[in-house]
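Team,

Forwarding the record for the chain on the shared tracking sheet. I've put the sequence and predicted structure together so nobody has to dig through attachments.
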Amino acid sequence: MSELKTLYKEGVWVNNPALVQLLGLCPLLAVTSTITNALGLGLATLLVLVGSNISVSIVRNWVPKDIRIPVFVMIIAGFVTIVQLLMNAYTFGLYQSLGIFIPLIVTNCAIIGRAEAYASKNPVHLSAFDGLMMGLGFMIVLVVLGAMRELIGQGTLFDSADLLLGPWAQSLRIEVFSFDNQFLLAILPPGAFLGLGLLIAAKNVIDAQIKSKQIAPPEAEKGPRARVTSLT
């Protein structure tokens, strides 16, 4: 249980791939203009992370060290192809919206990094949980950033949710306030840089506050000092 708790903290907060490791920033900055896009890419990345971690952990003892990276990339590419075909079949509108950034999951450093750093050295159940937590941490940042940009850019939340969840999700759209024109700075990639910087700054402030509230260990009790004088 202690190992699972550590993996949870590492993936979601302490070693978050987007806020701490700063991995996979290309799709994170490019497609998080809405919550729907962010959630779709986050779920795709999470599924690939879990699947690739499990597969790498299973074959880790049979893959020579000299070719482990190409093998890991092929495994990741296989899962990305599966996710891409599923999205093409069942969420075609979202598939078109995400475009090239779905196949680019293959080159996501967060996925390759976890396969090399953790899955190739640990059993299947721990590797699966590590992939789940790292993917969850990445997806949370995507969704929060997407919500910020969508709200500031066009005043809505869950716009075009039907692209991911089906026709019934049209009722999820919330119009917080209306704009005559969209705020392009928030919608375009420069707004993603600013938003991500704010999220990283907020995390650093929270970490600093948590660290300052930690109680320092009490000093060991000291006995009374004896004064020794010398007689000459």
